[in-house]
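Trying the structure run again after the queue cleared.
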Amino acid sequence: MSQRFAPDIRAEIDRFVGTCPHDRIDFEAVETAVRRSALHLAARAVEQRLDADLSDHCGPCRPCPDCRQPARYAGRHPKTFETVLGPLTLQRAYYHCRACGHGGYPRDAALGLLGSSLSPGVLRMTGSAAALVSFAESSALLDQLAGVRVQTKQVERCAEALGREIAAAERAGALPAEDPPAPTMYLGLDGTGLPVRSNETLGRVGKQPDGSAKTREAKLVVVWTAESRHPRTGRPTRDLGSASYSAAIESAASRDTDPEPSPFARRVRREAERRGFPRAERRVVLGDGAPWIWNLAAMDYPGAIQIVDLFHAKQHLHDVSKALYPDDAERARLWADVRCDELDDGCLNDVLAVLRSHADDCEQAAQCAAYIERNCERMQYAAFRAQGLCVASGVVESGCKTAIGTRLKRSGMHWTVQGANAIAALRCCNLSGLYEDFWAYRTARP
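Done. Tokens:
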């Protein structure tokens, strides 16, 4: 094959280079032309090779994959597929089942082309691009970088279909499990509002002036380790590449009478189990103080250390300072700085005493005092730091932005719940370093 290609490629080079001086040669044009010529020749060779192979003809009849009744051979039919070599038109044997009315092409299934006009290689690239940028940008990138033409709507359909496959593989436990990678493991939980279509919020209470909702909450679980230390402060920092993510628009609410945990609780269990969190020597659950987080942690990991994210706690104090001194920004800042220092030093009683002194006149102070009282054991930051533990959920906060916000909360985006969950699964799989493992599983399954 290479011998047959050589003269054609040399002809392309000669046509572009000719007798031009080297400093006038458009080398980019030469590279593009040669690449396209080589891919075109390779595509035609693959077409000829597959069209000459008639082994997909399984005789006059074959069992229908849907109903197992005899499906009859009904000739060969062409179809054009988009591949990494460019468009490829293949002739395939077609079998039709009169019993159920369905038809099928054995060759499509054998080549991984069943139900799609994209080859596995192009589908894989499409998923990688759509996990990172919008569908329109993905279509443009595929064209610019690989010379592959996939329309925006087709990118959307294929990416969401892949995301649903990834979600199914995750639920089935098909993604690789790990032993605890470090003595201490962290599990963080959080939620972020996601813009959805109006029909996805019907009847839901929200923060709009009329009480309606414009978003649905996507919940995220992050598992990571932090054996590394900051070079200046010596405090623990996330180990590079240790974070894994799983997210969806799911309910975390459950009642004692419910026979099964909530959908998000099951998601947390699966990701924690896959990462080896329950088997770690020391387990830490970090959250922003929302009751559903601690309910879930107490139910599944009763021995884990629970920590309220330090930055969330400090944000509450800053909100109180602004309410106390709305017209004096400097005084508000100084008040908040003193309270935050007390929080860092473990002087919760001092913080509570000040907040209670303002509780009668300031609703925010009363709410903050109740928040600290409710989470007092989870806010012993001096003691936690003495044990070498992370006390801030920066990994979770950045996870909400990285895994969800950067891709799904861009200007003008409004999702269906199904579409958002599919792309969230695709993106989390990519960010968690599991995309190659998913494709190995997808290729190996029957």
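The CA atoms of residues 108 and 114 lie 5 Å apart. Worth checking whether this holds up in the mutant runs.
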